[in-house]
Amino acid sequence: MTATKPAAEPLSIGDVAEQTGLSVHALRFYERQGLLVGPVRRTSGGRRRYTAFDVEWLQICVKLRESGMPLADLKQFAELVRRGPGNEAERLQLLDTHRQRVDAQIRALEECRSVITWKVGVYAEHLARGEAGGLWDPTA
């Protein structure tokens, strides 16, 4: 994960966008959807001020979403964390279910890579022998 500024120094939405890779628009969306663990503090002028904890949480959210966690599951996870201690078993179940989905995706991608690797080898071998003409030729 990216290093964050010290917890005592509040972070602007631009700082957080830079540190998390999320756009300013996405950060506002995450806030509206209730995906943050706590409320985002604001200055007297209404500007958002994030903490290092907010950044750490958002970095976790980014990885969960990049790995395909449904938005509804991420909302549920955030809600469980917001509630505090006592629901760790529910959090574990949610994360373990997602890990199982990711593991299945990885296995499927490995199978795809295997087929692609095989086909690359077929083409490379035919090209090296000068016999590539007509490979999968729909006009033949």
From TrEMBL:
Keyword hit for Ligase: no
Keyword entries, A-Z: DNA-binding
Residue ranges of every copy of the HTH merR-type domain listed in the record: 10-80
SMART domains per the UniProt record, alphabetical: HTH_MERR
Signal peptide interval: none
Domain of life: Bacteria
Nucleotidyltransferase is among the record's keywords: no
Pfam families assigned: MerR_1 (PF13411)
Family matches, as PANTHER family: HTH-TYPE TRANSCRIPTIONAL REGULATOR ADHR, REDOX-CYCLING DRUG-SENSING TRANSCRIPTIONAL ACTIVATOR SOXR
Name of the protein in question: MerR family transcriptional regulator
Source organism of the structure: Streptomyces nondiastaticus
Lineage: Bacteria, Bacillati, Actinomycetota, Actinomycetes, Kitasatosporales
